[in-house]
Write a structure and sequence with these properties.
Elements lengths: L5 E8 L24 H14 L5 E4 L1 H6 L1 H9 L3 E4 L12 H19 L5 E2 L12 H8 L4 E2 L20 E4 L5 E4 L4 E4 L2 E4 L3 H6 L2 H13 L5 E4 L15 H8 L2 H14 L1 E3 L1 H8 L7 E2 L2 E2 L2 H7 L1
Parallel strand pairs: 1-2, 1-10, 1-11, 2-3, 4-5, 5-7
Antiparallel strand pairs: 6-7, 8-9, 12-13
Length: 303
Amino acid sequence: MNGNIQNALTVDVEDYFQVAALAEAVSRDDWSSMEYRVEANTDRLLALFEQTNTRATFFVLGWVAERSPGLVQRIRDAGHEVASHGYSHQLIYTQTPEVFREETRRSKQILEDITGERISGYRAASYSITAQSRWALDILWEEGFTWDSSIFPVHHDRYGMPGTPRWPHRVKTDLGRELAEFPLSTLKLPGYTLPIAGGGYFRLFPYWFSQWGLGSINRQGQPFVFYLHPWEVDPGQPRMKVKWLSRFRHYNNLDVCEARLERLLKRFSFTTMSDVLKASGVLEPAFVAGGRDVTNSQVLRTL
């Protein structure tokens, strides 16, 4: 175990056919006819986390939660945190604010109905809160979210907000509200900021490099956030005919990902994102009035 720093372990609960890299091969209209593998793969991760005595935050897609409410309940009952991954896994900067608000509200309500608990955390599909979609942060605030983990401070063809803070912080929205933000972890190299937070990067880089990179963040006294998708521990998933870059990003090293993840869980200390944000001092307590939680939108209506 590496020191006493608690890091955030996160799972983006979506199926293989919902990934942006495969959108060229699978239409959203065809999702219901695809082989459904997310539930079994998420259960594999739940078993691994139980084995290693690890708690995590699961960002559950609303589309998945509607079809697998029992899975959401199992996540919660195992002591993990449930957060929102939106509803339809569409890139935010391709949506209108009205569509984004409707989908965000819908997903939040689905998860709250299943868990019986307030959902306060959010992560955008493919980290698609960028400079052109910062307006989404105000909608998150208005819909009652208190923290977000959607901003990747890197250059990338699909996402990224280079130059933004690399550590947990309070982010100010365009309208002057504030949310706690846990940006995806990066390494600062001469002239370049390298993604190191997990997912395809964890599969692409040699394991020793990921371990060294994550350890270097802890040695700076900072927590890192690691992310993974259930389909990344599923080398038997159907193969889609897509362009070489998308094929490389999605299928690279699926067969070794689960074993690497187990090594990482035994090397570092992990917990939920809310716990790490609280320890970092950037997550304010929920609004409380008369003994009950009040959403940001309810507070806004009283101002």
